[in-house]
Write a structure and sequence with these properties.
By secondary structure, this protein is mainly α. The chain has 8 helices and no strands.
Length: 134
C-alpha cells in the first residue's frame, strides 16, 4: 500500500477518515500492550471527529500531541522507547500530527512549527512504521 498515493488526491476530510481507520488499529495494538492508553484513545477520538462533520481546532490536536501538562502522545512515545508499544505510539503520533496539519489547513489558523513541518512525506514515514507492528 502506498499511503501517499492513496491519500494525497483525496479531500482533507476523506484523508482523515482513512487515517482514522489506521489509527484505530494502532490504538488496538497499543492497548494490547499497555492498559493505560488514554492518550491514544483521545488521539483516535479527535481523528474521528476531525474526519467527520465535527469541528476541532488545530490547537486541540496539537495539545493531544505536545501537551503543556506533559501529557500527550509524544510523551507516551518517549516513555515507550525500547518497549513493545514504541512503534505503535510512534505511528499514532505521526498520524495525529498529519491530521492536525489537515485541520490547520482547513481552518486557516497559523500552524505551530512542529505541525507546519508535516507534509506528505509524513505519510511515507507512517507507511514505514506500520509493518513494524506486525
Amino acid at each position: 500500500m502506498k499511503l501517499r498515493a492513496e491519500l494525497t488526491g483525496l479531500p482533507q476530510r476523506e484523508q482523515a477518515r482513512r487515517l482514522a481507520t489506521v489509527a484505530a488499529a494502532l490504538v488496538a495494538h497499543i492497548e494490547r500492550i499497555e492498559p493505560d492508553a488514554s492518550e491514544a484513545r483521545a488521539a483516535l477520538a479527535a481523528i474521528r471527529i476531525g474526519s467527520g462533520d465535527g469541528r476541532l481546532t488545530g490547537r486541540y490536536f496539537s495539545d493531544l500531541i505536545y501537551s503543556d501538562d506533559e501529557r500527550g502522545t509524544l510523551r507516551r512515545l518517549s516513555e515507550a522507547v525500547g518497549k513493545p508499544s514504541e512503534d505503535g505510539w510512534n505511528a499514532l503520533t505521526t498520524a495525529a500530527i498529519y491530521v492536525a496539519g489537515l485541520v490547520y489547513q482547513e481552518t486557516g489558523d497559523p500552524m505551530p512549527n512542529d505541525v507546519n513541518e508535516v507534509g506528505e512525506d509524513s505519510l511515507d514515514l507512517l507507511e514505514e512504521q506500520l509493518p513494524k507492528l506486525g
